[in-house]
Amino acid sequence: MAAPTPASADWWRQATVYQIYPRSFADANGDGVGDLPGITSRVDYLARLGVDAVWLSPFYPSALADGGYDVDDYRNVDPRLGTLDDFDAMVAALHAAGIRLIVDIVPNHSSNRHEWFQAALAAPKGSPERDRYVFRDGLGEDGELPPADWVSMFGGPAWTAVGDGQWYLHLFAPEQPDFNWHSEEVRADFLKTLRFWSDRGVDGFRVDVAHALAKDLPADLPSQAELEAMDKATGLHPLWDRDEVHQIYADWRRVFNEYDPPRIAVAEAWVNPPSRRARYASAEGLGQAFNFDLLEADFDADAFRGIITENLEQAALSGSSTTWVFSNHDVVRHATRYGLPPNGDEPRKYNRAWLLSHGTEPELDAERGLRRARAATLLMLALPGCAYLYQGEELGLGEVATIPDEARQDPTFFRSPGVDVGRDGCRVPLPWTVEGPSFGFGTGPAHLPQPDWFGKCSVEAESGDEASTLSLYREALGLRHELQADETLEWVDYPAKDVLHVRRSNGWEAVANFSAETLPLPEGVPLLSSGPFDAGELPGETTVWLRRE
Ligand code: GLC
Question: Of the four listed, 27, 103, 449, 514, which is most buried by Cβ atoms within 10 Å?
Answer without folding.
Answer: 27
